[in-house]
Amino acid sequence: MDSFEQSTIPQHIVEPLLKRKQPSIPVGPLFDPVRRQTQCKTSNAKVQNMRKIDRHTQLSALWLFTLLNIIFRDIHQFALKSHLEMLLTGRYNGVLITEELMLLGGVLVQVPIAMALFSLLLTRRIARPVTIAATIITTSTLLSTAPTDMDDTFHLGIELAAMMAIFWAAWTWSDADRIAV
Description:
Elements: H1 3-6, H2 11-19, H3 33-37, H4 55-76, H5 81-89, E1 91-92, E2 95-96, H6 99-121, H7 124-143, H8 150-171
C-alpha cells in the first residue's frame, strides 16, 4: 500500500499528483531536501548553507548590524565609573565636549542610520556609489578615536569587518544583480 493511500489526504487530490509526470531533478545534496538537512561535514563540501538574498536587503542588514554594534559599544561604556566621571567633567579622552562636537557626532552617526534605509530605497545605480562613500565616511569616523580598552577594540574590530563587508558588497554589485520590478 502506498504511503499516500494511508494518509488522510483525499484520493481525488492524491491521484492527479501520482499520475503527473515528475520533472527531472538533478540528484545530489543541493536538490534532495532530506540529504540537504543532514549534509556531510567534510571540508571539501561545495554546498553553501546560506540562502541568496537581495543585495539591497543584505546592505541594509549590514548597516543595521554596524549601527547596533556602534550603539552597544557606546552604551557599554556607561558601566565604567571612569567613563561616567570623564563625561561629568565635560571632557572625553582629553577633548572638550562642545555643542559643535555633539552636532558633528550627530551628523556622523546619521550616515549609518540613513544608509540602513537608503540601501532599501535607492536604485543600484545610485545606491552603489552612495554606499561606497558612506562606508569611507563611517570607517573614518570609527578610526578617528583609538579604542581605550579591550571591549572597545573588540567592537571596533567587528565594526570594521562589517564596513569591509559593506564596501565589498557595494564594490562587487554588478548590474546583473538587479531584480526586475
